[in-house]
Design brief:
The chain is mainly alpha-helical. The chain is built from 6 helices and 3 strands, in the order ααβααββαα. Strand 2 and strand 3 form a beta hairpin. The longest helix is centred in the C-terminal third of the chain and has 24 residues.
Length: 151
């Protein structure tokens, strides 16, 4: 009996769910969610990050990002300050507690990456990144013509 061929999107989803669960458990130890932790990682710890730049960096819609930023502000992990270069904009800065949580989370993310990298040969790691790049390029096509795909 032939085995079923694994679909790329299934492998991606299943893997991300596993990684997401791991990050969720880590974030819980620091009293936050995975989404809040990943947001902290995307805020520049020295100069802050413009709120308008965070959405594209994280691939999020403004409404979802606004909810995350409100939660981070309620937890006193960030402060919003006026953008000195654009009076309409806001720069998101990490508080000391936000910096501390960011550092803890960053250590876990690096440890995970190192552990996985140790299990892969340089060639396999290169192939992984090439595959991810190809997937990203394919999904960013403005007009995906599904009728041209032969099955």
């Amino acid at each position: 009996m032939p085995s079923k061929k694994k679909l790329i999107d299934h492998s991606l989803r299943a893997t991300w769910q596993t990684v997401s669960r791991m990050y969720t458990e880590i974030a819980k130890q620091y009293g936050i969610t995975m989404a809040l932790g990943l947001t902290l990682l995307n805020i520049d710890p020295k100069i802050g990050t413009a709120s308008t730049a965070l959405g594209p960096i994280m691939g999020m819609e403004p409404t979802s990002l606004s909810r995350l930023l409100n939660s981070l502000e309620d937890l006193k992990l960030i402060e919003r300050k006026p953008n000195p270069h654009d009076g309409r904009g806001v720069i998101i800065h990490l508080t000391q507690d936000g910096l501390d949580k960011r550092d803890f989370i960053k250590k876990h993310v690096y440890a995970f990456n190192l552990a996985v990298e140790k299990q892969l040969s340089p060639r396999d790691l290169e192939g992984f990144h090439a595959t991810i790049e190809a997937i990203n390029e394919h999904t960013q096509l403005s007009e995906l013509n599904l009728s041209s795909i032969k099955t």
